[in-house]
Amino acid sequence: MAEVHIIGQLVGASEFPEHSLFCKWGIHAGGAWKLIAGLKEGQTQVDNPENEEFAYWSHPIDVHYAAKGLQGWPRIHVQVWRQDSLGRSELYGYGFVHVPTSPGTHKIECVTWRPIGTMQEELTQFFVGGCPQLKNADLIYSGADRYKLRTTAMGKVHLKLNLIFRNFDKYGVEC
Amino acid sequence: MAEPLLKEKLRARRRAMNITAQSDINNEAVSSVDDTLTQNLAEHLEEVESEEDGNRLRSLMESRREASKRKLDAEEQEESQANVGDSEEYVDDILSTPRTPLPSRGPSRGPASPRTDTESRSSTPFGKATPRSTLRSRLQAKIQKNKMTGTSTSEEFKPRTRRLRDRMQLSTRFDETVKTESLIKETQLLERIESKLKWKQAAEKARQETGQPTETDCFDFFTKQYEDVEIVEPKPAEPVEPPHPPEEPDAVAEEPQEPSPDTEQPDTIEQQATETPPPTATEGGQAVPEQQKLLIEDLVPKELDYRLYDVYAAEYGGYQNQVDKENLNYFIPSMLPSDISKKVEDSARPRYLEDEGFYVGRKPEIGLQNKNILENRLLRQPDNGRGWFGADGEIEILPDPIKQVATKPWVEAVEEVDPSIETVYVKAYEYLVEGKYLQGSEENELQVDIGTVIYHHHALMSREHVMASNLSQCYDEYIQKRHKNYVNFYIDKLAALRRAVATILSSHDESLSTEVAASVRETRVHDFMSEIRRTSRQLNEAESSERDLMRRIIEEWREIKAVRDVQGFTNTSLKLTVKREEVNQQQDMQRWEDEVENQVEEKRDEYEISVIKPYQESLRKYQSQLQDWKKNRAKIKQQRKKLQRGSKENLLDSTNTETDEEITIAENVDKPQKPEKPEAFDVERVRVEIKNTLLEHRRNPGEPKLSLELAHTASVSTNATVPATESMRRKAMQKTSIVLKLLLNGKEVFQTEAKNLTSDFKLHFGSIFRIRITQWPESLKVQFLEAGLVMKTLLSEVYLTVPDTNVHSGNVQLTACNFTSERVEVFDHEAVGSNTPFKLHPTDTAPTSCNTRGQLISSVSWGLDENGKVLAPKGLTQVGADPLSVVNPMKTVDPVSAIGADRIQDPESLSKWVQDSRLDPNDPENAAFIPFMSGDQEGQGFLYAPDYFRLEQLQEEFNFLSDEEFERLNRLRLLELRDKEVAEFRNMTLIPSQEHEIMDSAFTVYERRLKEKKSLQLPTDQRPETATMSAHRLEVLRYRQLVKDAVLHRFYTARHHYTLQDMVHEQQVPDISTLGASVAKAFEPRRPLKPVKKDRKKATAQSLTQGSVNILVNIVRGYNLPVRVATHATAQEPTNTGRRFGGVESMIHLGSAPTAKTFEVNPFVAISFQDQVITTSVSEGRNPSWNEELKIPFAAPNNDFSSGSLQAVDDVIFVHLFDRTIEEASAQHEDDDPTLIVHRIQDHWLGTWKLPFSTVYHQGKVEGTFKLKVPPVLLGYSKDVQQTTDPSGQLDQQFAQQTSGTFLSLFITLDPILKPAEAPRPKFESQENETTLKMCGLFMEECTKKFPNRNVKATVVDLKGEAVLITRYVHPIQPPPELTEGSDPQSLSTAERVARYVSLIPFESDNVAYAGICDLWSTCDQFVHMLSGDEEEHAVLLLNFFLALGKKAYLLLGNAVPEGSTAYVLTVNEATRERTFWNASTGRYYDHKDNFSPLQSIGALVNDQNIWFNLQTLEKPSRTRFNLLNTSDWKPFFSSKFPNPGTLPTVQPDILHYSPADRAFVSGLTDQIERTLKERIASWRPRHVTRWNRSSNAILGQILRVLEATAARRTAGDSNQESELLNQLGDVRFTGFPMDMPYISVEQVVSAVRSTEVHKIVDPNVEFSLAVYIHPYPASVLAVWVYVAAIVNRRRHNL
């Protein structure tokens, strides 16, 4: 049984238009993957940097997967949210990255996007906050058609992952 | 540099500079200056070179170049655009203004210098051939080259200069003014210029002669070079370059050009030349532009006050000019359609694809004008817009589908957006951890319809009303029955069944009479017959119940009439009419007779089938058997004869031997019994029977059919005609109005208007309220408020259920829910009141009492919006569980919701509609219905999923290994289980990394537990072993498992709920007080006179390892131990032996001088814990003193010392008291040395005291004097007090008299102290109202502030994890009748029996049961059902029993040893002022004056009305005053400030159902225990023979029976029965004792027996005797008695 141990952290987010961000994250893996230990989803605290353009979360990720096949290599999907001064949260971006397929330390940048709504929604968003959200959050990482979706680019989420692979060579997979 | 734009700008700039330079040149003799400069530079260069070998220079030059470049770039960016034109103008300006450059110096020096220059120049390049000093040589080469090739630079330059010169001639109108102003000066200047020019020309001539470059050429050289270097730099090689080493000379050569702007002005140079070394890098950078500016200023001599600028008027070119120019430059595309032929490629004919039948999509709308403009513009492109136009000559607007790279024009959605990418606008919302709030909340609407309130009883009802309400309730029932019409239904059914039977029977002959058919028919007939019987029985029941009901209604009606007559007026409008339907007497009779006959026939048939048939069958069998038998007989006879003949061959013949056997077998077969003939069918008797039942149950023949009708037609008497009391009642009724209040989640949302009571006690509200909710509707409560004149009083409350999401206002139905109120209301007028006794009829002897009760007819549903959409919250699951699924309805997406038909109630009807409506499947609009249509084709609805669903194709094929292999991987399994925190693996560390290092045994415990759990879930009959478990007990176990799982889960999640303090550790900033304290510490005395006790440090879990924790037990001394008695001596004196066995009291009271010779004891104490036993030394006497400290190592489960696992430790510390006897043993062999004396050491168990480890763990230490549990009969020992004369003995005696029992003083603690876990304090949900909860909080706060150590609780947590007010647990419950019958319920013996019963329910600490988290209070029914609980459950049950027995009792919360905070029951005997504390879990009781009672402090008393907290300073029970009315001693919870609302119903059931004892099971269990014990005892003595003395077993068993009968009774008289029984054993030495315990499991019994260590007796002559007796109590409570004895028969062994 091949094993993948993902140890790392959600370092933070940069280049978002506003501060005070937090992130909901999750790891999605295919049916051949079995979670052995660790939490595969979570939510970070809100970081509101005063003098820097980088929200630090340093949220630990420690997941142990066992794989009986390669399909559905795990991917990390994130939702960045912003908490405004009234304590309300609004969506700020979706994004996902595949977990790298080579062992070792990886610094990963996950670019994010968010949907654009209609004119009225954009206006509303400008004045009172809120954001159009995907009705189906699976779309973040699923291969479904989304060419009709209007989106705009948001910032980046930085991840630092240390990967340990085990026994892949037994099954003829070189990592 | 690479950017072309920049290059362009640079070029422009340079051009501008050239021009300025040239203009200067034109004006002055710049060349000379240039030459000077170059010379200077060259000189300088040479100097530098000679000095520093050029390196420094190079770097210098390079840095300068860099800097200037940079500067240049920056400047260019600023002014680039305008520069070309500007500079020209600038030049113009300069030129047009008559300049007077250097009037005196210019001419004098200018010509001089060039000469020198030329000379030097001419000499250097050729004289010096060094590669480095190439400036001049290169200059020349360049110029020559220029001359030869006539490069473009010079070419370009010329026209410009020309132009400038031309312009010089031009004049503007402003020139005039300037001229007039400084005409004189100008003329002077002109003169100078003229002279200069002359010089220049002369110099030129000379130069031409010498071949020297002109100044223009020089300048050209510079600028050209400049351009070349900067712009053409990337070009591979400069053609001018001499073949020098490539880089270096280049750099050197290029450098001088850089500062060229500097050198343009001779003055500057002149001034600076002497002093200026090449400027440093930074200076050089700045120097360029600055000096450029200086240039102009310096141009003008200071003495000439010359202005550098002039003012011009704005130029105007004229409009037409402008237009013309624009026309020249601009292109304005036409709006007219362009020529199609231009757009279509070569083949001049456009193709129209649509006409050719191709699919052409609809193009987006674009304005025609715009399109034309675009087309025309495209056509003007150099390639004529190739590629932009399609075959039809139209511009391509839609994307090419087969294009490789996708471009994404936004197309406004024409059709609907794919639901999977739909976005939904979500407002910014506050994120709440509780997840209490709904999302998108504004669209959720609850509709509450409050319909009618019907009172079945109300305090203001008159007697007539009460009856009328009874009547109408009966009538409702009647109507309901009538409506269902059971009678007719059964009659019809019966008829149909009979017909069916008849048809079957009639078709008998016709049908094929095969065997199979016959049997089938038979079974069918049989079935029908049994069905008929059942139906007929049901009919009987239905009819008789209906008749009963009618009878009751009529009776009620009669009573009402009687009451009306008596009181002389009517209060209700009820009127009953009885309708009578006459029937045809004869016909009816006939029918009845038929029915009777029918039934008789059926009986007969039944008889045939059930009696005769089996008889015949058996008869037939009998006959055939008889035949066989006879045959056999004959055979046997024959055989015998043969055998007698004794032929040898026959004997040898094998067949014969076989027959021989047969014979013997056959002989053994008895002659078959003839079956008895059954009784004949007695028709008459059956008929009579049937007639009787019919008469009894059914309408009698000829009796008219009755039907009742209740009408509200009677007139109610007017107020004037009624007596005063009645009119008072009516007035009170009019004053009373009812208001209903609806509370959502405990918050009032609305109130109905007040409705007055009407005479029929029905209130119609009929109001519908819509509630828009933002929170999850957790509870909906309706409060009934009675509005009096002044204030509203709460009558009762009723909870409405929150509906499912599919219940909406369109489909909801009104439902009735009952409410009651326990409020006591008494009136002095006619009204009967509520919850008070009244007499319904004047003749009634016993008064009745009714609570106010009634029905609320209401409905709750979700609202519908105008589109008919249900306004229910999406997904009634709690949000927040999954952070990513906050908005994730796709998880529930199905085809139905995809079509937008949200929440279709009936998908089946939808699919039917789809099929019926024949939708076109090709129509894309119907795409959503495809699943419904395809379902039709397969003949099944879409509801049925297809046989397969491919989620991950080819997954299996690519898998590394199969699932089975996956499952077998132990390491991963181990990791996974550890991650899930499964108990067995929770704290595992260091799981091996290799698969083979993990043993399979790692899972055995876990798997066994799983198996047990699984077997619990199996139905009873499939259970593997049921010998030790009755069905009820299994049920109990299953129930307990369920509860445990649920509770564990709840607390597990609570434990993972962290607060900020858990996550963020902020060190406290030291303030002045802490600093002061630390300073003061320095001055503390080192050895204080009065040392303060310091708390021992508590060890943290991390620092502990196996073996580092010990339990310290300090055994101080014992009191009042039993004393050995020589058994054999007393055995002959039966009169005295009684003392030995009797209860303790009897001993003391008897007090007679013992005749028997008593021995002292040699006691020692053994502590056993976790399979380790440690003993003290042996002491002596009745009151021994040990003063020994014992240390027992403590092993934590899984080596985990975290508080979580320590709490779950359920090990018990046993403190056993033994007596060590040393006996002379007979020598093993007679021939041994007779002088040898062999001693045998034997330990005799005297008593035990148990202490759960959890108590030590939670309390840190346990200290005190404890009473040992001593068996009631201790053979060979006496608890008799010796009459001694010495003073210490007398003291002992006093002590013993007071206390009676054996005591042990000890102190137990842990070393080091382990940190007990803090109980999680999750906020419990509660059904209590908020004020009560608040008051509870306040009360607790006040109490703990005053006496923090006293045990008090206002709310407790029930099994559901909800906080419940403690008083609700107190409610009288009848104890099992077996315990109370036949005795005075008030008597002490009854109480003792009840207490014994309660104590027999096994004890299990909540901390252990629920992995040590908190104290849960189960209600009595849960407790009895689970058969386990700790102190408070026992106490509550006992209290409730006592209350039911009529005692005055309270629940006492306090602290006791050893259990710590506990619950006792306090009973108060008012007459004798005796107060008794009952420890419900042991069944013992103590007087309040008893100083040795284990109860140490009293915290609070609780009954069903109130809680009293003990405010007295002394908390010892013996020193407490019990006047609860004294508020300075006792603080009540419900006080005058906060009175008991009286509407707090109990959580306890009214009646407990006790399942009767299962005798068969008990006897089986007795056997099993006995068998197990015998096996075990034998196995514990592997080296000795274990003999069982069977004769004594029976006697011991009898003793046990007697003991059980008297066990509970301490007050009961002594009985000598035991001793008498023992006497029957004869002369024996006897060691043994009876033990009793509640039954938990066989293993528990075994371990209890083992702990007595009877089996350790090694006397070779010993015989064991064992008796087990189980006394079954109701509800599966079992008292197990075990009598283990070791007997040595003295006579037999000659002792």
UniProtKB/TrEMBL annotation, chain A:
Localization, UniProt: Cytoplasm, Cytoskeleton, Cilium basal body
The function of this protein is: Component of the tectonic-like complex, a complex localized at the transition zone of primary cilia and acting as a barrier that prevents diffusion of transmembrane proteins between the cilia and plasma membranes.
For this protein, the record's PANTHER family field holds: B9 DOMAIN-CONTAINING, B9 DOMAIN-CONTAINING PROTEIN 2
The family database entries (InterPro entries) matched by this protein are listed as: C2_B9-type_dom
Q: Does the keyword DNA-binding apply?
A: no
The entry sums up its family as follows: Belongs to the B9D family.
* Keywords, alphabetical: Cell projection, Cilium biogenesis/degradation, Cytoplasm, Cytoskeleton
User: From which domain of life does this come?
Assistant: Eukaryota
Gene Ontology biological-process entries: cilium assembly
Q: What's one GO-annotated cellular component?
A: MKS complex
Under what name is this protein listed? B9 domain-containing protein 2
Q: Which organism is it from?
A: Phallusia mammillata
Automatic annotation (TrEMBL), chain B:
Region annotation Disordered: residue ranges? 44-162, 235-288, 638-659
Q: Which Gene3D superfamilies match?
A: C2 domain
- Report TM segments: 1666-1688
Q: Name one GO cellular component term.
A: ciliary transition zone
What keywords are annotated for this sequence in UniProt? Answer: Membrane, Transmembrane, Transmembrane helix
GO biological process terms, semicolon-separated: non-motile cilium assembly; protein localization to ciliary transition zone
KW Cytoplasm (keyword) present: no
Q: Where is the composition biased (Basic and acidic residues)?
A: 44-74
The annotated regions of Polar residues compositional bias extend over 121-137, 260-269
Acidic residues bias spans: 248-257
State the name under which the record lists this protein: Coiled-coil and C2 domain-containing protein 2A
Taxonomic lineage from the root: Eukaryota, Metazoa, Chordata, Tunicata, Ascidiacea
